[in-house]
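QA checklist item 7 of 12: single-chain prediction sanity check.
[x] sequence parsed
[x] length recorded as 127
[x] structure emitted
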Amino acid sequence: MMALLGARSTLLRPYRSLVRGANSLNSQAAASQLAIGIDLGTTQSVVTYLDGGRATVIPDEKGRNATPSVVAHRLNADDLVGHAALQQAVVNPKGTFAATKRLMGRLYSDNLVRLELTRCQVHCFCF
């Protein structure tokens, strides 16, 4: 167990400066009374900021408060997220990913994962 902890510490070493930076940002946010909250939901995502005790949702460019938790990968083009990815899902079903968050952290042998594999084609599975 100690060897594993030692290896983990070595693996995380490059990220320590990021953690220090985040701690600095947290202290700055506490001093300014400003905070940002991100709700990465399974089907929708929302970003809100808290300023002086008042919460305000940050809308997208079209004024919508919630953004679909959908990502579309397109060959030879930029990836799409949110409403744009959802709109093109009909023409690009193999490159569109939605509701995948509920499978995160599950083993490949998990019953829910196995069921989902029978419902859709998976060309790549990362561990």
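[x] summary fact logged: The helical segments are 2-12, 16-32, 83-87, 111-119.
[ ] second reviewer sign-off
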